[in-house]
Amino acid sequence: MTWSTDDIPDLDGRRAVITGVTGGLGFHTALELGRRGAALTVTARNPRKADDTVGRLRRELPEVDVEVLALDLADLADVRRATQELTARHDRIDVLVNNAGIMVPPYTTTTDGFELQIGTNHLGHFAWTAGLWPTLRASGARVVSVASLAHSAARDIDLASLTVAGSPRRYRRWQSYGESKLANLVFALELDRRVKAAGLDVVSVAAHPGLSSTNLQKTGVGMGSPFAGSAFAQVSKIVSQSAAHGAWPLERAATDPTLTGGEYVGPASLGGTRGRPVPVGMTRAARDEHLGATLWTASEAAVAVDFSV
After folding, report:
1. At 118, which CATH number?
2. Which of 44, 59, 206, 309 sits most deeply, having the most CB atoms within 10 A of its CB?
3. Is 181 a catalytic residue?
């Protein structure tokens, strides 16, 4: 059976929290979950862009219950503030979609001194999920980690990049991006192992959008050169599917009750670059249980949080 957004069940009475809604994937995921009745908490770094996004959501769905939470995943103090604010507002989170990310910027660091891509894409979301964990656990939530086809280019994760000292290797932006996306996938599978071992109702799944035209290419690449970012985005528009279609795997991962944990959802066609969302394969590194355990331990040390499932 081919999945479509018509298969999203009624979400009335449920709360979905989605990071990074000012880009295409986050916006369309919020739109479809809101269309099915979910109350939405959406996060963004930029208040003006967040207001624009909420305005778009309300124009499409006048009755939508949506709130904005400021969140900078590249600042662990801000992550702690945001988790405290969110859990003070709500005692239930039914769906968490960890979507926000940065893509192939020039070398720079987070507020806490980590390389920006691993620090934002993985460590920020690790600390964010850990801070929300008591509420997620009590809610029997579904946690969706957004990875990428780029994970397959990384054979391992340089755990030195999860320290302030950083990796001694030369910075290669695509290599670091691939490792950060591999980390998202490894985290999703390790969380699945731990919740199942603990007998919890939480479901951890992962998804990737294939090749989708979003703002990520322009803002990431454009950090080094606005011209390069715009050029990359224009090429992406030609070869990619729309952001609305790219969000399908995220939406299925967030709502399909037949996915019970540990699955990876992506487009079905053209080597996983486009098409309807289906469970897809992943690399041996992504499934490596030793890597999952060591990444978890290194991440706890990096963000100074005991993430005990």
Report:
1. 3.40.50.720
2. 206
3. yes
